[in-house]
Amino acid sequence: MKIGSVEFGKEPLFLAPMEDVTDPAFRLLCKRFGADMVYTEFVSADALIRNVKRTEQKLTIHDEERPVAIQIYGKDVDTMVEAAKIVEEARPDILDLNFGCPVKKVAGKGAGSGMLRDVPKLLAITKAVVEAVEIPVTVKTRLGWDDQSKIIVDLAEAIQDCGAQALAIHGRTRAQMYTGEADWTLIGEVKNNPRMRIPIIGNGDVTTPERARECFDRYGVDAVMIGRGAIGRPWIFEEVKHYLQTGECVKPYSMQWQIDIIKEHVLRSIEWLGDERKGIVHSRRHLAVTPVFKGIDHFKPTRIAMLRAETLDELFEIIDSVGNRE
User: Which residue of the set 30, 101, 162, 215 is catalytic?
Assistant: First the structure.
Protein backbone atom coordinates (compact mmCIF):
# COMPACT_ATOMS: atom_id res chain seq x y z
CA MET A 1 0.00 0.00 0.00
CA LYS A 2 1.22 3.49 -0.84
CA ILE A 3 0.04 7.04 -0.14
CA GLY A 4 1.92 9.56 -2.24
CA SER A 5 5.55 8.51 -1.92
CA VAL A 6 5.03 6.87 1.47
CA GLU A 7 5.25 3.09 1.22
CA PHE A 8 3.56 1.06 3.97
CA GLY A 9 3.91 -2.52 2.82
CA LYS A 10 1.24 -5.17 3.20
CA GLU A 11 -1.67 -4.87 5.66
CA PRO A 12 -0.54 -1.75 7.55
CA LEU A 13 -2.03 -0.65 10.86
CA PHE A 14 -2.73 3.01 11.60
CA LEU A 15 -3.36 4.78 14.91
CA ALA A 16 -6.55 6.82 14.52
CA PRO A 17 -6.55 10.53 15.38
CA MET A 18 -8.21 11.08 18.77
CA GLU A 19 -8.62 14.30 20.71
CA ASP A 20 -6.73 14.35 24.04
CA VAL A 21 -5.30 10.90 23.20
CA THR A 22 -2.91 10.88 20.25
CA ASP A 23 -0.32 13.31 21.56
CA PRO A 24 3.41 12.66 20.95
CA ALA A 25 3.78 10.65 24.16
CA PHE A 26 1.17 8.12 23.09
CA ARG A 27 2.05 8.18 19.39
CA LEU A 28 5.66 7.26 20.10
CA LEU A 29 4.59 4.29 22.21
CA CYS A 30 2.21 3.06 19.51
CA LYS A 31 4.93 3.48 16.90
CA ARG A 32 7.30 1.42 19.04
CA PHE A 33 4.77 -1.39 19.16
CA GLY A 34 4.30 -1.46 15.41
CA ALA A 35 1.85 1.22 14.27
CA ASP A 36 2.71 1.88 10.62
CA MET A 37 1.36 5.43 10.71
CA VAL A 38 0.15 7.65 13.52
CA TYR A 39 -2.12 10.69 13.42
CA THR A 40 -2.08 13.79 15.59
CA GLU A 41 -5.04 14.99 17.60
CA PHE A 42 -7.61 17.04 15.69
CA VAL A 43 -6.24 20.47 14.85
CA SER A 44 -8.76 23.31 14.56
CA ALA A 45 -8.11 25.34 11.42
CA ASP A 46 -9.73 28.39 13.01
CA ALA A 47 -7.54 28.17 16.11
CA LEU A 48 -4.43 27.48 14.06
CA ILE A 49 -4.70 30.61 11.93
CA ARG A 50 -5.37 32.61 15.11
CA ASN A 51 -2.08 31.34 16.58
CA VAL A 52 -3.67 29.65 19.59
CA LYS A 53 -0.73 28.21 21.52
CA ARG A 54 -2.39 24.93 22.55
CA THR A 55 -3.37 24.29 18.93
CA GLU A 56 0.08 25.14 17.57
CA GLN A 57 1.53 22.68 20.07
CA LYS A 58 -0.39 19.89 18.34
CA LEU A 59 1.79 20.37 15.27
CA THR A 60 4.82 19.06 17.16
CA ILE A 61 6.05 15.86 15.55
CA HIS A 62 9.21 13.80 15.95
CA ASP A 63 11.23 11.98 13.31
CA GLU A 64 10.93 8.77 15.35
CA GLU A 65 7.18 8.65 14.75
CA ARG A 66 7.27 8.99 10.98
CA PRO A 67 5.32 8.49 8.87
CA VAL A 68 2.93 10.80 10.70
CA ALA A 69 -0.21 12.60 9.58
CA ILE A 70 -1.49 15.91 10.92
CA GLN A 71 -5.28 16.17 10.81
CA ILE A 72 -7.19 19.44 10.56
CA TYR A 73 -10.87 20.30 10.71
CA GLY A 74 -12.93 23.36 9.84
CA LYS A 75 -15.93 24.49 7.82
CA ASP A 76 -14.57 27.31 5.67
CA VAL A 77 -12.61 26.81 2.46
CA ASP A 78 -10.23 29.75 2.86
CA THR A 79 -9.56 28.97 6.51
CA MET A 80 -8.81 25.32 5.77
CA VAL A 81 -6.46 26.29 2.95
CA GLU A 82 -4.59 28.75 5.16
CA ALA A 83 -4.36 26.17 7.95
CA ALA A 84 -3.16 23.51 5.50
CA LYS A 85 -0.28 25.75 4.43
CA ILE A 86 0.70 26.26 8.08
CA VAL A 87 0.57 22.50 8.66
CA GLU A 88 2.76 21.85 5.64
CA GLU A 89 5.49 23.95 7.25
CA ALA A 90 5.49 21.50 10.19
CA ARG A 91 6.61 18.83 7.69
CA PRO A 92 4.19 15.96 8.30
CA ASP A 93 4.26 13.11 5.82
CA ILE A 94 0.53 13.46 5.18
CA LEU A 95 -2.18 16.06 5.73
CA ASP A 96 -5.54 14.57 6.69
CA LEU A 97 -8.91 16.31 6.51
CA ASN A 98 -11.35 15.51 9.30
CA PHE A 99 -14.88 15.11 7.97
CA GLY A 100 -15.79 12.50 10.57
CA CYS A 101 -15.65 13.89 14.11
CA PRO A 102 -19.20 13.51 15.52
CA VAL A 103 -19.00 15.54 18.74
CA LYS A 104 -21.49 18.37 19.03
CA LYS A 105 -18.98 21.19 19.44
CA VAL A 106 -17.46 20.23 16.08
CA ALA A 107 -20.21 18.63 13.97
CA GLY A 108 -22.87 20.93 15.37
CA LYS A 109 -21.00 23.89 13.91
CA GLY A 110 -20.75 22.31 10.47
CA ALA A 111 -17.20 20.95 10.73
CA GLY A 112 -16.08 17.32 11.13
CA SER A 113 -18.96 14.99 10.30
CA GLY A 114 -21.15 18.10 10.01
CA MET A 115 -19.68 18.35 6.52
CA LEU A 116 -21.73 15.30 5.56
CA ARG A 117 -24.72 17.65 5.47
CA ASP A 118 -22.97 19.97 3.03
CA VAL A 119 -21.22 17.72 0.53
CA PRO A 120 -20.50 20.50 -2.02
CA LYS A 121 -18.51 22.38 0.60
CA LEU A 122 -16.77 19.17 1.76
CA LEU A 123 -15.62 18.61 -1.81
CA ALA A 124 -14.68 22.25 -2.31
CA ILE A 125 -12.47 22.14 0.79
CA THR A 126 -10.83 18.90 -0.31
CA LYS A 127 -10.08 20.18 -3.81
CA ALA A 128 -8.79 23.55 -2.58
CA VAL A 129 -6.49 22.00 0.03
CA VAL A 130 -5.12 19.46 -2.46
CA GLU A 131 -4.26 22.30 -4.81
CA ALA A 132 -2.74 24.44 -2.04
CA VAL A 133 -0.11 22.03 -0.67
CA GLU A 134 2.57 19.71 -2.05
CA ILE A 135 2.23 16.92 0.53
CA PRO A 136 -0.34 14.12 0.09
CA VAL A 137 -3.85 15.00 1.26
CA THR A 138 -6.13 12.30 2.66
CA VAL A 139 -9.65 12.32 4.08
CA LYS A 140 -11.33 10.65 7.06
CA THR A 141 -15.11 10.51 7.24
CA ARG A 142 -18.15 8.38 8.16
CA LEU A 143 -20.84 6.44 6.30
CA GLY A 144 -23.17 9.45 6.29
CA TRP A 145 -25.08 11.73 8.61
CA ASP A 146 -27.69 9.15 9.64
CA ASP A 147 -29.31 5.89 8.51
CA GLN A 148 -31.33 7.72 5.87
CA SER A 149 -28.24 9.29 4.28
CA LYS A 150 -25.49 6.70 4.01
CA ILE A 151 -23.78 8.39 1.08
CA ILE A 152 -20.25 7.04 1.42
CA VAL A 153 -20.13 4.95 -1.78
CA ASP A 154 -20.84 7.92 -4.05
CA LEU A 155 -19.01 10.36 -1.78
CA ALA A 156 -15.84 8.26 -1.92
CA GLU A 157 -15.67 8.61 -5.69
CA ALA A 158 -16.19 12.37 -5.47
CA ILE A 159 -13.45 12.69 -2.83
CA GLN A 160 -11.12 10.72 -5.05
CA ASP A 161 -11.94 13.02 -7.97
CA CYS A 162 -10.91 16.01 -5.82
CA GLY A 163 -7.38 14.62 -5.58
CA ALA A 164 -7.37 12.97 -2.15
CA GLN A 165 -4.76 10.21 -2.11
CA ALA A 166 -6.45 7.93 0.45
CA LEU A 167 -9.76 7.69 2.28
CA ALA A 168 -10.34 6.43 5.83
CA ILE A 169 -13.91 5.44 6.65
CA HIS A 170 -15.37 4.96 10.13
CA GLY A 171 -18.17 2.42 9.88
CA ARG A 172 -20.78 4.50 11.67
CA THR A 173 -23.01 7.45 10.84
CA ARG A 174 -22.75 10.73 12.70
CA ALA A 175 -26.08 10.00 14.39
CA GLN A 176 -24.61 6.83 15.90
CA MET A 177 -21.72 8.72 17.48
CA TYR A 178 -19.81 5.76 19.01
CA THR A 179 -22.84 3.61 19.89
CA GLY A 180 -23.85 0.32 18.36
CA GLU A 181 -21.52 -1.67 16.17
CA ALA A 182 -19.46 -0.35 13.29
CA ASP A 183 -20.87 -1.49 9.94
CA TRP A 184 -18.05 -2.49 7.63
CA THR A 185 -20.26 -3.63 4.74
CA LEU A 186 -20.29 -0.20 3.09
CA ILE A 187 -16.56 0.17 3.69
CA GLY A 188 -16.16 -3.06 1.74
CA GLU A 189 -18.49 -1.78 -0.96
CA VAL A 190 -16.35 1.33 -1.39
CA LYS A 191 -13.18 -0.77 -1.58
CA ASN A 192 -14.71 -3.14 -4.14
CA ASN A 193 -15.99 -0.34 -6.34
CA PRO A 194 -13.97 -0.80 -9.55
CA ARG A 195 -13.85 2.97 -10.02
CA MET A 196 -11.93 3.48 -6.78
CA ARG A 197 -8.18 3.73 -7.26
CA ILE A 198 -7.00 5.23 -3.97
CA PRO A 199 -6.30 3.21 -0.79
CA ILE A 200 -9.28 2.61 1.50
CA ILE A 201 -8.61 2.52 5.24
CA GLY A 202 -11.20 0.88 7.47
CA ASN A 203 -11.93 2.09 11.00
CA GLY A 204 -14.32 1.10 13.76
CA ASP A 205 -14.39 -1.49 16.57
CA VAL A 206 -11.07 -3.15 15.78
CA THR A 207 -10.16 -4.30 19.27
CA THR A 208 -8.73 -7.78 18.66
CA PRO A 209 -6.19 -9.33 16.27
CA GLU A 210 -8.90 -11.66 14.96
CA ARG A 211 -11.14 -8.74 14.01
CA ALA A 212 -8.29 -7.01 12.18
CA ARG A 213 -7.65 -10.20 10.20
CA GLU A 214 -11.35 -10.39 9.31
CA CYS A 215 -11.42 -6.78 8.15
CA PHE A 216 -8.55 -7.34 5.74
CA ASP A 217 -9.87 -10.65 4.45
CA ARG A 218 -13.60 -10.00 4.31
CA TYR A 219 -13.72 -6.37 3.26
CA GLY A 220 -10.45 -6.06 1.35
CA VAL A 221 -9.34 -2.78 2.90
CA ASP A 222 -5.82 -1.57 2.24
CA ALA A 223 -5.18 -0.63 5.87
CA VAL A 224 -6.89 -0.96 9.24
CA MET A 225 -7.10 2.00 11.60
CA ILE A 226 -7.28 1.36 15.34
CA GLY A 227 -8.72 4.01 17.64
CA ARG A 228 -10.34 3.36 21.00
CA GLY A 229 -8.92 -0.17 21.07
CA ALA A 230 -5.46 1.34 21.56
CA ILE A 231 -6.32 3.61 24.50
CA GLY A 232 -4.51 2.29 27.55
CA ARG A 233 -3.18 -0.52 25.35
CA PRO A 234 -0.54 0.74 22.90
CA TRP A 235 0.79 -2.80 22.53
CA ILE A 236 -2.34 -3.78 20.57
CA PHE A 237 -0.37 -3.01 17.40
CA GLU A 238 2.20 -5.66 18.32
CA GLU A 239 -0.57 -8.15 19.11
CA VAL A 240 -2.34 -7.54 15.81
CA LYS A 241 0.82 -7.54 13.68
CA HIS A 242 1.96 -10.84 15.16
CA TYR A 243 -1.41 -12.40 14.43
CA LEU A 244 -1.55 -11.05 10.88
CA GLN A 245 1.91 -12.45 10.15
CA THR A 246 1.67 -15.81 11.94
CA GLY A 247 -2.00 -16.57 12.54
CA GLU A 248 -1.16 -17.02 16.21
CA CYS A 249 -1.72 -14.85 19.27
CA VAL A 250 1.28 -13.45 21.09
CA LYS A 251 2.25 -14.98 24.39
CA PRO A 252 0.22 -13.19 27.11
CA TYR A 253 2.02 -10.23 28.58
CA SER A 254 2.60 -10.30 32.31
CA MET A 255 0.70 -7.78 34.39
CA GLN A 256 3.98 -6.28 35.57
CA TRP A 257 5.13 -5.76 31.96
CA GLN A 258 1.87 -4.01 31.13
CA ILE A 259 2.06 -1.89 34.27
CA ASP A 260 5.59 -0.83 33.34
CA ILE A 261 4.30 0.39 29.96
CA ILE A 262 1.43 2.26 31.61
CA LYS A 263 3.88 3.95 33.98
CA GLU A 264 6.19 4.81 31.11
CA HIS A 265 3.27 6.47 29.34
CA VAL A 266 2.51 8.59 32.41
CA LEU A 267 6.14 9.69 32.57
CA ARG A 268 6.14 10.53 28.86
CA SER A 269 2.98 12.60 29.32
CA ILE A 270 4.54 14.54 32.17
CA GLU A 271 7.63 15.19 30.08
CA TRP A 272 5.51 16.27 27.11
CA LEU A 273 3.40 18.71 29.12
CA GLY A 274 6.22 19.83 31.38
CA ASP A 275 4.08 19.56 34.52
CA GLU A 276 3.58 16.60 36.83
CA ARG A 277 -0.07 17.16 37.68
CA LYS A 278 -1.06 18.01 34.10
CA GLY A 279 0.67 14.88 32.85
CA ILE A 280 -1.14 12.74 35.40
CA VAL A 281 -4.52 14.26 34.60
CA HIS A 282 -3.88 13.82 30.89
CA SER A 283 -3.11 10.11 31.46
CA ARG A 284 -6.35 9.40 33.30
CA ARG A 285 -8.31 8.52 30.16
CA HIS A 286 -5.83 5.71 29.50
CA LEU A 287 -5.79 4.58 33.13
CA ALA A 288 -9.59 4.51 33.21
CA VAL A 289 -10.04 2.13 30.27
CA THR A 290 -6.84 0.10 30.13
CA PRO A 291 -7.51 -3.67 30.11
CA VAL A 292 -4.56 -4.20 32.46
CA PHE A 293 -6.81 -4.05 35.52
CA LYS A 294 -9.82 -5.78 33.97
CA GLY A 295 -11.24 -8.64 35.99
CA ILE A 296 -9.49 -7.82 39.26
CA ASP A 297 -11.81 -8.53 42.18
CA HIS A 298 -12.99 -5.55 44.22
CA PHE A 299 -10.95 -3.17 42.08
CA LYS A 300 -13.41 -0.25 42.02
CA PRO A 301 -12.03 1.58 45.13
CA THR A 302 -8.51 1.21 43.77
CA ARG A 303 -9.56 2.55 40.37
CA ILE A 304 -11.19 5.58 42.00
CA ALA A 305 -8.06 6.26 44.04
CA MET A 306 -5.88 5.87 40.95
CA LEU A 307 -7.94 8.37 39.00
CA ARG A 308 -7.88 10.85 41.88
CA ALA A 309 -4.12 10.70 42.46
CA GLU A 310 -2.46 14.12 42.20
CA THR A 311 1.23 13.23 42.47
CA LEU A 312 3.46 10.74 40.68
CA ASP A 313 4.51 9.05 43.92
CA GLU A 314 0.89 8.57 44.97
CA LEU A 315 -0.18 7.27 41.56
CA PHE A 316 2.70 4.84 41.15
CA GLU A 317 2.26 3.53 44.69
CA ILE A 318 -1.36 2.66 43.85
CA ILE A 319 -0.44 1.10 40.49
CA ASP A 320 2.41 -0.92 42.04
CA SER A 321 0.09 -2.22 44.75
CA VAL A 322 -2.03 -3.72 41.99
CA GLY A 323 0.99 -5.34 40.40
CA ASN A 324 1.95 -6.88 43.71
CA ARG A 325 -1.36 -8.75 43.76
CA GLU A 326 -0.36 -10.81 40.73
Answer: 101
